[in-house]
Design goal:
alpha/beta; five-stranded parallel sheet; five-stranded antiparallel sheet; 8 helices; 17 strands; elongated
Length: about 250
Amino acid sequence: MKVVIIEDEKPAARRLSRMLNEIGIEPITMLHSVEEAVNWFYSNEHPDLLFLDIQLSDGLSFEIFEEVEIRSAIIFTTAYDEYALKAFKLNSVDYLLKPIDSDELKNAVNKFRNLHTIANNKSFNFEELKDLISPLKTNYKKRFTVKIGQHLKMIFIESIECFYSENKATHIHTIDGRSYLIDDTLEQLEMKLQPETFFRVSRKHFVNINAVKDIISYSNSRLKIILQSYNESEIIVSRERVKDFKNWID
């Protein structure tokens, strides 16, 4: 099976590639933008299956199909949910919500294998999908509202050093050294934070790249992060995230 991943977030693309490797599939390539994908399709034989993110760094992925007639089945990978999902289901082999679950990935691949003849002959209505998705372009959080006594305080994203989990609760830590409780879990924040600015270094911490003061080699091939003011607990980049973290700061 020939597979191509189109995903603008390189850590997410690499993670998906590793997950596919675990079920015996080696992607031909990973593409990260509309322009890169268009150029690749002009010069290469089309794969059997595409894993396609909706929002790429230079536009919606549907713009690829305005330039090239794609002859591949598609599994969408997306953070969008609710009413858009019906469109994904009708116009593709399947869809996978981020963060992608390994069992759901296996099921989607098996579905493609069982229906590949139908999928390859299917007529995709990309214009209809584009109309549905365009209003849903990702709007990353610009501020959080927290309650302090009887007051509500707005905390703008630029003033946040990190998010951390403690005693099953999630907190914001700001550049002025204060911490505030919020309702979101770290998992929910993964779809709300700009990935170029915030990185989840472990199960307990999301850090702002602009707040990183120092990076220190730590035991077992891990890294220790020092922020400008945060000292609630040690911030350790887990071993499995070190490579992606280094790519993020590069």
